[in-house]
Specification:
The complex is a heterodimer of chains A (240) and B (182).
Chain A lengths: L1 E4 L28 E2 L4 H4 L31 E10 L9 E6 L24 E5 L5 E7 L4 E3 L5 E3 L2 E6 L8 E7 L17 H5 L2 E4 L10 E4 L2 E3 L2 E6 L7
Chain B lengths: L15 H5 L26 E6 L1 E2 L10 E6 L15 E5 L7 E6 L10 E7 L7 E7 L8 H6 L7 E5 L2 E3 L2 E2 L9 E2 L1
Parallel strand pairs in B: 1-9, 2-10, 7-8
Antiparallel strand pairs in B: 1-5, 3-4, 3-6, 6-7, 8-9
The chains are: A mainly beta (240), B mainly beta (182).
């Protein structure tokens, strides 16, 4: 018997329609999502082996850099633990990250911001959690950038995370912010999160214990996926 | 008993290709894009093509979305030997918004009609959206999700269209697709 997962926490997860984030206005579904019981498909999820991780996938400073070069910007390590709501480590889970460069520019055809591209920075990385759910990657601190939403909206510096758990129901895309960034409280995308304590959990903390002297500063970012319900799943759906 | 609170979802934004399809987006020519194929070429079962458009509340095609598919194989199993057979990922065409996937028709699951789980991430979606793709010519009786969807169940049923089982997904407005609180 396998356990289904807890539902999304409405006090934590942003609603679909948040009009101050303008792109939600025509893209947010307006019907209430249909509740359903988890079956084998929701409880299972794709699992990846270490073979999907290349040698420099967890080093964004170097993985797009010319030989002998390194990406421009503040050298940082981002690390943390992937867990579920009962503090159980999620081991062997794939994490994909992407971000703007130190000047706030993405290496993407649709990003037309004035800030320059860095020839030595791509902005893409991958890593896998270990048996304790720990993950880490090296990168440069991304810059804040303006975006066409209100008249004068700037995104706080952030790193995008795509996270696979044990089950497809746990699949998550989110963004990590940096402690102390004054743009966090001004951002309509951050503001979609209903609970300010939940926003705190999207904010990485400076971690001097993992900081490498004369090399890089470390930021700690823990991720919590939905946990398993206490009642077992018996291959049967409600109403069936 | 829960001891930790969930991490909130945030939109994937318009640049998710960098992280989720680095080769296709030209960021890291050395890295492989994950989810290019749902199954190995020799996987047993009937090969089918699925796909369609994702449309916003104004009827415009969304051209920056990512679709992930997760499904059972022809024997009703998930993951296969690789651990990720039955999972695939498509970036919609940046001009037309079309996506298309060659896959295997899944078996029925206990008390569920055959279906593909779809997960959609894009700019403007605070949380990625779950829905399903069912096939029009399967037996849908007893499927609890279609039953619960009632008159809107048709928004999850793909229609044969030449060589493809087409499901256009309407994020909002008339004919809004049924999205699931998975």
């Amino acid at each position: 018997m396998t356990h289904a997962f807890n539902p999304p926490d409405p006090a934590v997860q942003p609603p679909a329609l948040t009009p101050t984030y303008r792109s939600t206005r025509l893209r947010a579904p307006l019907h209430t999502p249909l509740s359903m019981e988890h079956g084998p498909g929701e409880i299972a999820g794709p699992r990846f082996g270490q073979n999907v991780i290349g040698p420099l996938d967890d080093d964004l400073m170097l993985n797009h850099a010319r030989p002998g070069h390194s990406a421009l910007g503040e050298r940082i390590l981002v690390h943390g633990h992937l867990m579920d709501e009962v503090a159980r480590p999620v081991a062997g889970a794939l994490i994909e990250v992407w971000q703007a460069n130190a000047a706030g520019r993405y290496r993407h055809a649709r990003d037309g911001y004035l800030a320059p591209l860095d020839p030595d920075f791509g902005g893409c990385g991958r890593c896998m959690t270990d048996a304790q759910g720990a993950f880490a990657f090296r990168t440069i601190r991304p810059g804040p950038y303006p975006w066409p939403n209100g008249g004068n909206d700037w995104r706080p510096a952030h790193i995008h995370f795509s996270v696979f758990g044990d089950g497809f129901a746990q699949r998550l895309i989110t963004q990590m912010y940096f402690q102390g960034d004054p743009h966090i409280s001004l951002c309509p995308i951050v503001g979609a999160v209903p609970d300010s304590a939940a926003v705190e959990r999207l904010t990485a903390r400076l971690d001097m214990d993992a900081t490498v002297p004369m090399d890089l500063r470390a930021w700690r970012f823990d991720i919590v996926l939905r946990g398993r319900r206490q009642t077992p799943f018996e291959n049967r759906m409600e109403g069936a | 008993m829960t001891t930790l609170r969930q991490t909130p979802s945030q939109t994937a934004g318009p640049y998710l290709h960098i992280g989720c399809a680095p080769v296709a987006s030209g960021v890291r020519p050395g890295a492989g894009d994950l989810g290019a194929a749902a199954f190995p070429d020799d996987a047993p079962g009937e090969v089918v093509q699925v796909g369609g458009l994702i449309l916003d509340g104004a009827g415009e095609a969304v051209t920056d979305a990512m679709v992930e598919v997760w499904q059972a194989d022809a024997a009703g199993r998930f993951g296969g030997a690789s651990g990720h057979a039955g999972w695939a990922r498509r970036m919609v065409d940046p001009t037309t918004g079309e996506w298309r996937l060659r896959t295997i028709r899944p078996a029925a699951l206990p008390a569920q009609a055959p279906h593909l789980m779809l997960w959609i991430a894009a700019r403007g979606l605070n949380c990625a959206l779950h829905t399903r793709l069912y096939f029009a010519d399967d037996d849908h009786s007893g499927d609890p999700v279609l039953a619960a969807a009632g008159a809107r169940a048709a928004t999850m049923i793909a229609r044969p269209d030449w060589d493809i089982h087409r499901l256009d997904i309407h994020l909002q407005g008339e004919g809004e697709t049924v999205f699931l609180a998975v």
